[in-house]
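Data availability excerpt. The first of two example chains:
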Amino acid sequence: MVDERTDSSRGANEDVIATEVRRRGERITKIVNIYDQKNTHSGERPARKLNWQRAIRQGSTVLAGDFNAHSIRWNPRCPVQWDAVFWEEVIDQNCLEIGNDGEATHHWTSEGHEGESVIDLTLANRTITKWSILADDDHATGSDHEVIELEVEVDWQEEAGHERVVGWYIAAMTEEDAKAAEKLWMELAKGRAHLDAECTAEEVEQEAAWCQEAMGNILDATAQKIRICAKSKRWWNADIRERRKTVGREKRSRRNSEESAKAKAECQKSIRQSKRKMWSEYLQNLRGAEVWRAARYANPRAGMTVKALTGREGKQANTSLEKEEMLRGESFPPNDDDQYYKLPPAGSAHTCVTEQAVERAICSESVKKAPGPDKLSFAAIRLLWKWDKERIVRLTKAAIHMGRHPSVWNWASGVVIRKPGKDDYTQLKAYRSITLLSCMGIVVGKVVSELL
């Protein structure tokens, strides 16, 4: 079934066209075609007026089209970032995956000059399993844009296997991979000047963001990704893999719904048996006081969902969003005086920052330390330090001189855990949060603490 969503479409020239597609027995997939262009009369971009958080479904959504934006996020060799901030924020806020592989999608000719760029993007909140440019004669068109073919897997079995990238295997990089990564960094950094003593706070922000994005894109291209999915679990085995393949074949054939349901039931039964076997083997290998740890795992109260959370002032949070807001406010209480606080005149502490001090801050942290939301661990920071020490030292000096902690370092990944031994877990004070910060921000913080 195909249904055009006119409530999500926008623009007199059809700048945004949303279509919902649903096959029998599967969830809805929303496909949004985008042409991000300026209105010749008003100068506005209708595609950017849409409430994208509402338009992007919690299920499966694909955004594809001409975004008219240049960024190293989707083009590692982009010389200048242009008009991309809006779409980068949409990607980050909605956890969208970029399907492009960096290959040029647009070929232009102007005043006798030719060039190419990456402005036709494919974004999705599900794993993009296939993305390619159809560059054969059968798909030739009169347009200067390439024809793109993509596949997004969204049925129930792919939900179970949905992967989440949490970093890169830096230690597993071969010598050739490391040289390729260094070469790509040198190409990107060649045209970008280092910060100097006259730089502004905005330039410090831009430099920190550029280093973070460039390093992430380079590792995407040269290092193996650390993926968390159902296959990462100990109970995953060859039998489950084969049964999932059988389920996929039955669903694609559409010949017999009973056979498909039977294959799905057999797959779920195999998963339950594997989990039961794993738990049994774990219990048999316990020794001494380890049995009490197993008892905590088996306690049904440990994973019990709290219907309502009560704050310190007696206010109750019932929905997930309300609970998140209450827990965030407890972990990071707002300070009304911040907006009125004036920074003192710049001092000379930054002149005491040396290459040795920055190196001590980087090497004092374990490479096994979990990174923040930028996924750049201390192993990645050490790699960057090996390639471009001067850039890191100058960025550290500039941040201290300007009294500026770049906003890209202020994002954090957090998990809320229960404090042990509490009587009432409906109370906010019975919980605490563990926060993972940007490793580069931690480096600057350690340099500052050494100066104090």
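And the second chain:
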Amino acid sequence: MWMKRWCIVFALAAFGCGAFCSCGKSDAVEETSEGTTEDPVEEKSKITFEFEGEYSGENDEVIIYDYYDTLGGSDGTLRILGIVAAGADDPYVHFPAGRYCISDMSFTITKEIDGVSDYTFKVNYQSGSITEVRETRPSIKYKRVGIHPAAGRQGVCTDHDHYWVSGSGTLSKYDRDWSLVAENTDPFEGYELEVNHIGDIDVYDNELYLGVEYFMDGEGKNIQVAVYDADTLKLKRVFPFRQDTGQLECSGIAVDPDSRTVYMTSWIDDESSEYLYMYDLDTGDYKGKLKLDPAPKWLQGVAYYNGSLYLTSDDGDADENAPDHMYRVDISEDKEIGSVTEEKAFDDVLRQGEIEGVTFDKKRAKLLLLYNRGAKIVAGMPTGFYEGYTEEIHEVFEYDIITGP
């Protein structure tokens, strides 16, 4: 279906201030005498953004759904550009067609080329200028170097010397060679409230941190932050869970030792999953919630690494062989907003299925990802198998982390 497109063009003077205007035809494309179009010679400082669809003026920020990058003599290939939409009912609202004036708005644009964010621009529409430009972190690449069978389908963590894997109702410990050294097949002993489900897990100071709940048909209740002995795999204590936070499920948990914070995710696809829920590592007290901006869907795992949080999202489609993703969350200084950027599409697993827990081995520069394949998943629960499978297979994929170009 043919769709009319509209654009906003602005020039970046060596990443300084620039004019900002709106128009019904892109300044980056000129019409020739034969009626065809071709790209003119562009200055390296010009970028053309393209919009279409409808935009609600009630939103503080807008989404640009794609753009043409003309930096460095680009051929104008259409590339994806993600922009936060604050308070939008539809996260993919766009500008309307026609001429218009935008004022009193500012937002952050993360320009991505080949999936790697390189610069973030803050644009103030009222003044028509770029108010902030910063270079993002060096690119990180992940090279798959190993696959390890595991005894659980939920989470994974490591302290560099051992690995722990959680099933929905099991805990397992492995040595550096992935040989099983301990197992607990009855991890719910000692709870006052009924629970039946463990999500992604983390380890800190020889203690395992678990998000435990009663989960059935896509809904969770009796959520608890539980701490286990990392050797015996037995329950030690439980944090008091705040019922008034809006958290309706717990799919994963991560420990940030730098800020002494425990983060929890919610898998349910509603407002609950738009936040990470924070508890004090030392006291167990509730600290507040971090708004994800934008918010990925169907969160499964969470991990802390080098100052950022990383989320795994079951946002692919195994039936269509579409991969799930991992997202990086950069936390604001006031601990209220987490800026989300796509980090990796897991198109290198053996077969598309269900992404689960994630962890990092900082000493050895490793990413570890738990991935399930073979089972058909409905409302978060296995409901039969794909052709060629008689059981669900759980594997931990090991990646080397490569920084730099």
